[in-house]
Amino acid sequence: MRQDIITLPEITQRSHSHKATAQVFNDPESQKLLEYIKQIAPSEASVLIHGETGTGKELIARQIHEHSHRRHKPFIAVNCGAFSENLVESELFGHEKGAFTGALSSSAGWFEAANGGTLLLDEIGDLSKRIQVKLLRVLQEREVVRLGSRKSIAVDVRVLAATNVNLEQAIIAEQFREDLYYRLNVVTLNIKSLRERKGDILPLAYHFIDKYHAQLGYEKAEFSDQAKQKLNDYWWPGNIRELENMIHHALLICQNGIIQSDDLPLLKSPAQRANDKHQQEAKRPVIDAKLKEVFQGLFQQHEGKVYSQFEEQLLRVAYDYCHQNQVKTAQLLGLSRNVVRSRLIELGELVVSKRGD
């Protein structure tokens, strides 16, 4: 089993928990991607990296940087969606002292900080049209103008962009500039979801076991055959990040160093949820028939008193089901809390204290 694993550097203030912290190239599709990265990395071409959240887009960008002649220069990753409209221009292009309230000193932006190296603009689709215009100018002129300044500063930066949205559809919706898209999209890398590269799942899972063993002292664990099958069959909506969180959870609850199938809580896929709904709807005629039979029996045995007895039993069962919680009982039955409270008192299920309960 190949173990071409790359990981993010340990950054204490990494706040975006949706990021994948490891990438592996064991699956044939991933191996093809790695070979393509090595092919295009030495060029100066801009690269647009597209993939679902948690697929490891920043890690792929770092691989491009590490296989380029810029590898000894800075690599800076910026999440374009992490800054407000008022701050993103300053963050990207820098500002001079007094450019805005709170600008107590001059500051270089991310383009200047990445000079000579590589700048990843993550979630590029979150930039406003106004900032897109300024970004396009920087890419064309290879120079930045700090906020509050008239002097341009030359920058030598290779720009990589990443997104989890379809920018072509954003162009049609007039949310993204077409000229900027073509400037960024010299090379496109489509990162497949984890469910499309099943050969990476177990190597990543074992990597995360090793990671938490080293960092937190967790016991190294093995997977049962059923657990392995469950991992391989799952649809992984959260991709690598979801796998890491799941392994962390499994290590906390597994027994005797074996991760069992039940230790892996998985979300149902849309197809599974649709099937469950279909099965529930299929059962409805059977349930309706049984209810009809029950009511007919009540009508025969308790003519004239069915409604009151049914209401009484329904309220008792609902109150018990909600663990004697009046608010939840009211919500379950679609009644107000005052109505439920009054009926419970009448039925002797609720005793009113001197303080008014």
Topology readout:
Elements: E1 5-7, E2 22-24, H1 28-40, E3 47-50, H2 57-66, E4 75-79, H3 85-93, H4 110-113, E5 118-122, H5 129-141, E6 143-145, E7 152-154, E8 158-163, H6 167-172, H7 178-184, E9 187-190, H8 201-216, E10 222-223, H9 225-233, H10 239-253, E11 258-259, H11 270-301, H12 306-321, H13 326-333, H14 337-346
Parallel strand pairs: 3-8, 3-9, 4-5, 5-8, 10-11
Antiparallel strand pairs: 1-2, 6-7
Protein name: Fis family transcriptional regulator
InterPro entries: AAA+_ATPase, AAA_lid_NorR, Homeodomain-like_sf, P-loop_NTPase, Sigma_54_int, Sigma_54_int_dom_ATP-bd_1, Sigma_54_int_dom_ATP-bd_2, Sigma_54_int_dom_CS
GO molecular function: ATP binding; DNA binding
Task: Outline the structure in words.
The protein has helices spanning 28-40, 57-66, 85-93, 110-113, 129-141, 167-172, 178-184, 201-216, 225-233, 239-253, 270-301, 306-321, 326-333, 337-346; strands at 5-7, 22-24, 47-50, 75-79, 118-122, 143-145, 152-154, 158-163, 187-190, 222-223, 258-259. It is an alpha/beta fold and 357 residues long. It folds into three domains: 41-192, P-loop containing nucleotide triphosphate hydrolases (Rossmann fold); 198-263, Orthogonal Bundle (Helicase, Ruva Protein, domain 3), CATH 1.10.8; 302-346. A five-stranded parallel β-sheet has the order 4-5-8-3-9. Strands 1-2 form a two-stranded antiparallel ribbon. A hairpin with a 6-residue loop joins strand 6 (143-145) and strand 7 (152-154). The longest helix is centred in the last third of the chain and has 32 residues, at 270-301. It starts with a strand and ends in an 11-residue tail after the last helix.
